[in-house]
Amino acid sequence: MRIDVATIFPEYLDPLRHALLGKAIEQGRLNVGVHDLRSWATGAHKTVDDSPAGGGPGMVMKPEVWGPALDDIAAGNTEGSELASALPHLNRPRHDELEGIGGHSYEPTGEDSSLPLLLVPTPTGKPFTQDDARQWSHEEHIVFACGRYEGIDQRVIDDAHKRYRVREVSIGDYVLIGGEVAVLVIAEAVVRLIPGVLGNKRSHEEDSFSDGLLEGPSYTKPRVWRELEIPEVLTSGNHGLVDRWRREQSLKRTFERRPELLAGAHLDKADIKYLEGLGWTSA
Ligand code: SAM
């Protein structure tokens, strides 16, 4: 996969070089280019924003800067912006590198899939989900356009449809100062699902949201810590009982914290009986 990010704060994207993403870069599974939007700005002051048409507070990012930037990035006409991994643990295997990862199904959207995917973070976008992360983990080229101020002139997004498959995406119902943090969130969620990046496929198959439920609590050694014991079943050695206990913890946590998710989850008879015991009633 290749990821390109256009931003007026390239250094903000430095965390992409660390940890799992840095490892994916080292493995050659990921190339990342971070581009300073100001290099497409003209004029002595390299201005990237202007006052809003029709008046009002704040500033809007200029189309004459964003247009050429997205043209060049789509065409691969960028140089000297490759991000190298900053990892200190070159080639050191992770504890969960046990087996390969199979592919996921990809839902066709009816668009030209040879076009790169342009993700535009904005609080007005469609909420980003684990399903999006799963689908986008199969993309060859993802480009992120980081807005600042009041956002990017809408014509940039409308025009980009000629060269990209465009998605405006929100990471939550709150307003950030800029799109950079949203890019880090989305890139991390997507890259960890690229086949082979996370060694053990169970690590993400059992994650929250993967089966429509939240994951239950996790424990490790020691068995007793500050007089608190690991649930007995986890040390029983009975895998069937452990699996059922995990399933019930997952159901319980989802019921308590995100009951609306239960309507879309695949539940069997035993799940429904357990949930009804907790007071859940299916609609
Ligand atoms: N005026 C915009 C509005 O009310 O919708 C908010 C602009 S915000 C101050 C500046 C930039 O931060 C946006 O262009 C976007 O890139 C980013 N941003 C802010 N909140 C976000 C969110 N919840 N999800 C994704 N990106 C966000």
Topology:
Layout: E1 2-7, H1 19-26, E2 31-36, E3 49-50, E4 60-61, H2 63-75, E5 117-127, H3 130-136, E6 141-145, H4 154-160, E7 165-170, H5 180-191, H6 201-205, E8 224-225, E9 228-229, H7 239-257, H8 269-278
Parallel strand pairs: 1-2, 1-6, 5-6, 5-7
Antiparallel strand pairs: 3-4, 8-9
The structure holds S-adenosylmethionine.
S-adenosylmethionine is lined by residues 121-124, 146-148, 150-151, 170-172, 174-179, 182.
Structure description:
The chain has 283 residues and is of the alpha/beta class. The chain folds into 2 domains: 2-201, Alpha/beta knot (3-Layer(aba) Sandwich), CATH 3.40.1280; 224-278, Trp Operon Repressor, Chain A. 29% of the residues lie in helices and 15% in strands. It has 8 helices and 9 strands. The protein has a 5-stranded parallel β-sheet. α2 (63-75) runs parallel beside α4. The radius of gyration is 22 Å and the shape is elongated. It binds S-adenosylmethionine. S-adenosylmethionine binds at residues 121-124, 146-148, 150-151, 170-172, 174-179, 182. It holds the Pfam family tRNA_m1G_MT. InterPro entries: Alpha/beta_knot_MTases, tRNA_m1G_MeTrfase_C_sf, tRNA_m1G_MeTrfase_TrmD, tRNA_m1G_MTases_N, tRNA_MeTrfase_TRMD/TRM10. It is found in: Cytoplasm.
